[in-house]
Every structure is written in C-alpha cells, then in structure tokens.
Specification:
This protein is mainly α. Helices cover 72% and strands 0% of the residues.
Length: 173
C-alpha cells in the first residue's frame, strides 16, 4: 500500500513536471508570467512587503505638508496607488486560479481514490451551472439514505461468538 502511494506521488510529480514543460513550450510568455506572478505574490504577502508599504505611507504622510498637499503631490500618490493596485489584481488572480486548479485536482484525486465516491463529479467545476445545481440537489437527496457498505465492511468477519457488536459493553445488550 505504501509503495503504491509512493508510485502515485512520483507519477504525479512527473506529470506536473511534464505539464510545466509543455506549458513553457506552448507559451513561454505564459510560463514566464506564471513564474513572475508566483514570486510577486509570495513577496507581496511577506513581512518585508508590509513593512515597505508602511514606510511608503509614512513617506507620503511626511511629504504632504512639505509640498503643501498640492494637486501634483496628490496626483502622483493616487497614480502610484492605482497602478500598483491594478497590477496586483492580475497577479493575485493568476495565483488564485492556479491554487484553485491544484486544489480541484487534489479533490478529484481523492474522489477517484475513494471506492464509494461518485466519480462522475470529477471535473464538475467546468460544467454548466445547471449541471452543478443538479448534482448538488442529487447529493443532498442522498444524504439521509444509508450508504452501501464499503469493501472492508463486506469482507469483515463476524465476531467469534456469532453475535454482532453494537458498540455497547457486553453486559448492556
């Protein structure tokens, strides 16, 4: 069992590497942007970036009176903030999209690995909204139904005394 997990992990790593290489061959610009977006989002979420932002705010607050809070001073500050915000939206969205895809892939793998799971929901995130709503209603309708026994439950041997165990101590049956 452990060997099988290791084999799957190696296969997944190899598949990810192949996908990265294929993406780079297909579009070096997309690969570059993905790399830059990852680095920038990691940096933007760091203590150093937060400290730099605090420093920029302090410099802005100190220079305001020096320039008499002029229109030019305000225009420069507003333009800078708008440009940074505009660029960060795209970088953060790229990172979130990749994170969501990776999470979805992991969930799909778990669905695939669980014997009782409904494999037809793998990839449902790319289906039309109506199909997703239908799957949700169907799953909610099944929540109160008893589930079928798992393979382990079907092959489990009965107790030696021939009595089933209901979880209570023997004297309380």
């Amino acid at each position: 069992m452990k060997r099988r997990r290791e084999d799957r992990a190696q296969a997944a790593a190899a598949a990810e590497e192949r996908a990265d290489e294929a993406a780079e061959r297909a579009s070096p610009v997309r690969a570059w942007f993905g790399h830059v977006a990852t680095r920038v989002s990691e940096g933007a979420g760091s203590v150093w970036a937060f400290s730099a932002a605090i420093l920029v705010i302090l410099v802005w607050a100190v220079t305001g009176p020096m320039f008499g809070f002029s229109d030019t001073w305000q225009l420069i500050a507003n333009t800078f903030t708008t440009l940074v915000t505009f660029l960060m939206v795209f970088l953060i969205q790229n990172t979130q999209n990749r994170d969501a895809k990776a999470t979805q892939l992991k969930l799909d793998e778990l669905i695939h690995a669980i014997g009782k799971a409904r494999n037809r929901v793998i990839g449902v995130e790319s289906e039309p909204e109506e199909r997703i709503e239908h799957e949700i209603r169907e799953l909610e309708a099944e929540k109160d139904k008893p589930s079928a026994p798992s393979q382990d439950e079907r092959t489990r041997r009965p107790p030696r005394n021939g009595r089933s165990h209901d979880g209570e101590p023997a004297g309380h049956r």
